[in-house]
Amino acid sequence: MAQIVSLSKRRGFIFQSSEIYGGLNGCWDYGPLGVELLNNIKQAWWQSMTFRDDIEGLDASILMHPKVWEASGHVENFTDPMVDCKECKARFRADQIDESKCGSNAYKGRKASKCRDEGKFTEARQFNLMFKTFIGAVESEDAVVYLRPETAQGIFVNFNNVKDSTRQKLPFGIAQIGKAFRNEINTKNFLYRTREFEQMEMQYFVKQGIDTEKYEYWKQNRLNWWINYGIRKERLQFVPHPQSKLAHYAKDAVDIEFDFPFGWGEIEGIHNRSDFDLSQHVKFSGKKLEYYDDETKERYIPYVIETSAGASRGFMAFLCNAYDEDEAPTALGKVEKRTVLRFHPKLAPIKCAVFPLVNKDGLQEVSHGIKDDLQSSFNVFYDESGAVGRRYRRQDECGTPYCVTVDYDTLKDNTVTIRDRDSMKQERIHKDLIKKYILEKLF
Ligand code: GAP
Fold it and tell me: pLDDT tens digit string along 117-168?
């Protein structure tokens, strides 16, 4: 994990939020390569959801009417039990600590030493994870609004709007990508548990009775999505929630877990939410959220199958899955260790790098021409500094699947070498074929 965190900073994937002020716990910034990777993940998800007839897209606002969160159960139930160490004042989730020892580094001004307090914790108190703020100029109780802790509720409250404006028939889904905020008591493991993160959620509305069939369908569909974008099968597992531990809204639930360097962790949840959410919003808003079936003349509140993936956790899973170390030949006939990110080409932040072999005799001009042409179709990086071997190593660390080198033969016959990141094999192809060669691998 330490190597991945260090590579992320060195190559511009992830930076600490507000780093020059010492950082802000549980918040991270996506750097130039990070934002490309994140956008590619979100785009791959968005296409898989909305490039089909039965799913519509939505982008609801982050701030919503406070009654939404009463109806959803978040005001009452979205809590974690919290305890404080009486000695050093560090705060923990009561269900996640070894009760016998504090062991935190939270001594004020004595960061290096650990608290040796032997379990003198306060009684557990319930702590609501929603961030509160105020709408308008007056900071009073009636002006309280919450930063949404999940995107799902924006979909439920827009059920009628989407159904009526698109004339979709059941079953149909609504997909959304967006930020969510949780005031987690303990943030941990890099991007795994953060206070600000992004979700990719889809709610699929179905008639009660076919909910179990659709739940099974979405379980498989979502597992395949992660595999299709390169996550190795053996690093993924389903973990069903036992009936006794189901969330207040769920009839059935399963997590898709990824094998992170620190152990297995959830990256997506698939839930059968029954008609809980729509029924709650009917109760609290007084509005009807129903479906009328023209054929059977029935009117009912649909059940919901939810797929809820973390874009930020997914980012981390793709990063950990891609990280590899192997050996590469050097120009002197030796081998050296190389670090490589083996991203699926479609997710890779940069698709191709272009290098002139030397910086003279017109090779730079030809390389620039190739780069400009490729850049109209995908993200390209131009590099003329250092030995070609070094340039390859840098691109391997960025996860760039193809590198093109322009040399003296290019001036004679218009061919270039194209080098594959994973096999390190080089082929000679005509420069006019580079775009086609790469696009074929991307789609
Ligand atoms: N609408 C259902 C829902 O929000 P969840 O299991 O609480 O379900 C879904 O969250 C996904 O959101 C998780 O699988 C995870 O990928 C991501 N997620 C949840 N809390 C997170 C956090 N604090 N930091 C990063 N990602 C988080």
Answer: 666 788 888 889 999 999 999 898 889 999 999 999 999 999 999 999 999 9
CB-CB contact of 179 with 30 (8 Å): no
Ligand 1 pocket check for 152: Cβ under 6 Å: yes
Q: How far is the CA of 206 from the centre of ligand 1 (A)?
A: 23
Are the beta carbons of 358 and 388 closer than 8 angstroms? no
- DSSP 8-state code for residue 351: -
CATH (domain of 222): 3.30.930.10
Q: Facing residues of 269 across strands?
A: 255, 308
Asked if residue 142 and residue 97 are part of one domain, the reply reads no
Q: What is the pLDDT of residues 53-80, one digit of tens each?
A: 999 999 999 999 999 999 999 999 888 8
The number of domains in the chain is 3
Per the listing, tokens 């956008």 go with 39
CA of 65 to the centre of ligand 1 (A): 21
CA distance 363 to 373: 16
Ligand 1 contact via 194 beta carbon (within 6 Å): yes
Going from the Cα of 409 to the center of ligand 1, the distance in angstroms, rounded, reads 53
Q: Which residues contact 310 (CB under 8 A, 6 or more apart)?
A: 197, 198, 199, 200, 267, 268
Residue of 27, 182, 199 to test ligand 1 pocket, by largest number of atoms within 8 Å of CB:
199
Query: Is residue 308 within 6 Å of ligand 1 at its C-beta?
Result: yes
Contact criterion met (CB below 8 Å) for 339 and 322:
no
How far is Cα 213 from Cα 205, in angstroms, rounded to an integer?
13
Burial class (CB in 10 A: 0-12, 13-18, 19+), 415: middle
Quote the Cα angle for 43-153-208, to 5°: 95
Q: Give the domain extent around 94.
A: 79-128
